[in-house]
Write a sequence for this structure.
């Protein structure tokens, strides 16, 4: 598979490695899956939605990459353990785990339902722990591995209407540091990445003008709103891309990350430093 045109990494960098990417069929997760496959890894794409799996698999394999899929709800600890066992039975190892599956939405804290709170907490935090715990004995036995989790920057200052997501991602940061120290003797490097705003369909919907605004071309108007925000609110003047995040994942998965563990890397163009108080 030809390395992506924007990649700075050499072809074959991850040859022979097996990478499991949760939430790997769309958005940031798919960007990560594509780059890891382009660098030679066999990527196991995990998602709850068959349609996302099928489309991601088709695109990666059509480009010559090695990939397979697994239906997985990271909230189900037993299913996580069974899926990891299946991957190891098929491929013999897991070198990289990317905990990318996440869920969040805006909701007032005062009226946030127990189910809403539980859903995000279980996907973002519990899922990260379940998957990490499941790959631990595999990585320990094979002499090491990389666990890379997705965090965020909103909890650095606090962010109204996101109590569930900010609490969960703060937990991911703490979990990352704890596992990094605890599992270092087994040569398991544990790090996290805190992405800034990445224009996915969800972000576009959040920036879209109200339905009753009278704007005929909602998509074009949304793009203009997003460009205006990037120019004003992000010091580097542009939105991030899934490739920006994937590049850091590839770096940490490569030998360049051999002496890096317990770190949370902010990749947001400087946005959280410049963002005014909520």
């Amino acid at each position: 598979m030809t390395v992506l045109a924007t990649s700075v990494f050499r072809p074959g960098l991850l040859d022979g490695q097996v990478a499991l990417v949760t939430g790997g069929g769309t958005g940031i997760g798919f960007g990560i899956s594509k780059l890891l496959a382009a660098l030679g890894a066999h990527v196991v794409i995990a998602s709850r939605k068959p349609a996302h799996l099928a489309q991601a698999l088709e695109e990666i394999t059509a480009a010559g990459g090695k990939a397979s899929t697994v239906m997985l709800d990271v909230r189900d600890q037993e299913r996580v353990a069974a899926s990891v066992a299946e991957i190891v039975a098929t491929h013999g190892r897991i070198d990289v785990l990317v905990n990318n599956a996440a869920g969040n939405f805006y909701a007032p804290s005062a009226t946030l339902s127990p189910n809403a709170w539980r859903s995000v907490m279980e996907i973002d935090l519990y899922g990260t722990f379940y998957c990490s715990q499941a790959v631990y004995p595999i990585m320990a036995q094979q002499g090491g591995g990389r666990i890379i989790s997705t965090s965020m920057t909103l909890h650095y200052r606090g962010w109204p209407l996101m109590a569930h997501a900010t609490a969960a991602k703060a937990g991911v940061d703490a979990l990352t540091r704890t596992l990094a120290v605890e599992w270092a003797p087994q040569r398991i490097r544990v790090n996290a990445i805190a992405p800034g705003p990445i224009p996915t369909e969800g972000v576009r919907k959040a920036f879209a003008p109200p339905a009753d605004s009278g704007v005929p071309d909602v998509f074009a108007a949304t793009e203009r709103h997003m460009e205006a925000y990037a120019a004003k609110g992000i010091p580097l003047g542009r939105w991030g891309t899934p490739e920006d995040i994937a590049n850091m994942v590839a770096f940490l998965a490569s030998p360049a990350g051999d002496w890096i563990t317990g770190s949370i890397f902010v990749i947001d163009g400087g946005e959280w430093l410049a963002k005014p108080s909520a």
